[in-house]
Amino acid sequence: MLPIRMGIASQDLKRAAAKTGSDLVDGSLTPLIWGRVWGKLDTCWGVIVVWKLVTVAIWLIFLGIGPELSSDNRGHVELESIEVPPSSKWTSWMSWDGASYQYLALHWYGDSGEIDDRLYHAHYPLLPTFLRAAFALGFSPLATSVVFCQVVGVVALYALYSAWRCHFSAKCSVRALWLFCAYPWSLFLEQVYTEGITVLLLALLLIAVHRDRTLLACACALLLPSARPTGHLVTLSLIVCLLVTKDQRRWLWPAIAGSVGTGLYFGVIGLSTGDAWSGFSAQQFYPAKGSILNVIDLPAVLRGFANVAESHYMHRSPIDRGLFLWFLFEAWLIATRCHEPLVRVFSLAAGFIPALSNLFFSFARFHLLCLVSLPWILTKRPKNEQGCPLEVVAAGLLIKAVLLWRHWTFLWAG
């Protein structure tokens, strides 16, 4: 009887292992335990917890061994004015746009006409508005900004997963979330930038439109144009969906709210600076000198694509050009596989228009928002249980590690 019972127990272990996706070899419990651990991690919150632990570790390592930021490499903001010590390693996470948003939260836009004021006009008002409200809690502006954007980043990832679950299986959505977090430029969800709040509002908009929650859809569409330039593309996408789809009732009010939101952005900038177009004209003070007119200037686009020099920096990186070539393949997959109108129109617009208008400047950063279409890119079948291969996720994590090293060296993640 004893051998028979042991055989039955062995079979039970194998069945349990099979449920967790693990194989049992010679009765060993190691694969079974690992299978159960992986079963816990391969979930939405498992991905988010791992992502946060890894990024917190990166923060601690960086604060311990990262380079200090020299006075000529902090971006265009005097960090002393926002209570960031000039020699602090924290400045690497508050330089460039991060410092600008904190400055705007403290001092708002200026209308003096001086270039120091006009530089800030290129930044959008929604994040500074939320930060200014958070500062009322009385904590350090630096700590408040960092914690606020960390929390928004976590909520944005969960909202994005929930938006994907409206169309895909849990496993496919989780694997897409793994890959989204492994994408190197998801680093901007960790910094005081506008990516987190934009991803959050966009994901909530997708959920609201799918579930016919008109009020929520209108609120998100209203706020997105004030979050970052890509928000105007959301309004454009909603209008396109209204015009080309048969279900006009689904898109009418969000399209109206998005149009009002675009007007609200120009109104806020106009009242604050005296010139409603100053946000767009201020782009000419930045290295990219972005202009929507570049989209139709084919010679300028071709020259910009061929203008390659630095291995990795803002201006002429081959990484951005190579990623744009990959995006062309993605665009074909989005056009042929994605049948959700808003996702399809927005993903294509969010890839092509920033790339061409900025002449491929920092395209790898802008490409992050195109990845709202990630599950459609990965699979033809909405209920596919397999999702993204783990080897692809591992490759993404390796690339992300290389990017972080470059960020520590050159203090630029874009």
The unreliable regions are 1-10, 16-27, 65-88
How far from one another are the termini? 67 Å
Largest sheet: none
Care to count the β-strands?
Answer: 0
What fraction, in percent, of the residue positions are helical? 55-70%
Order of helices and strands: HHHHHHHHHHHHHHHHHHHH
Strand content is under 5%
Overall pLDDT score: 76
What class would the helix/strand composition place it in?
mainly alpha
- Tell me the count of domains: 1
Counting DSSP H or I runs of 4 or more residues, the number of helices is: 20
- Large-scale geometry: globular
Rg over CA atoms, rounded to whole Å, is 23 Å
Task: Fill in the keyword field for this structure.
414 residues, mainly alpha, 20 helices, 0% strand, globular, disordered N terminus
